[in-house]
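Quick start: read one record
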Amino acid sequence: MAGKLHFSLVSPERELFSGDVDQVDAPGTEGDFGVLADHAPFMTTLKVGQVKVYSGGAVKVFAIEGGFADVTPDGLTILAEQASEVAA
């Protein structure tokens, strides 16, 4: 079974999400991408769109207004220019 990915979503106002998840999909400026545990490190800019967080069969969706994504051996951090959770 695959391990968990530590994910943190931060806006200028506050941290909107922090926890261990199965997968995160994000809107990269050079194309949408997904990140799982043990992903190769990279950094990219983000465009306006949705970040989808998958964990244990549940999905949380956040609307973002651009920013940066940083994948490291410790996990994925998204620094969003603006972000808010989308109601299910």
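Residues 22 and 56 are 7 Å apart (CA to CA).
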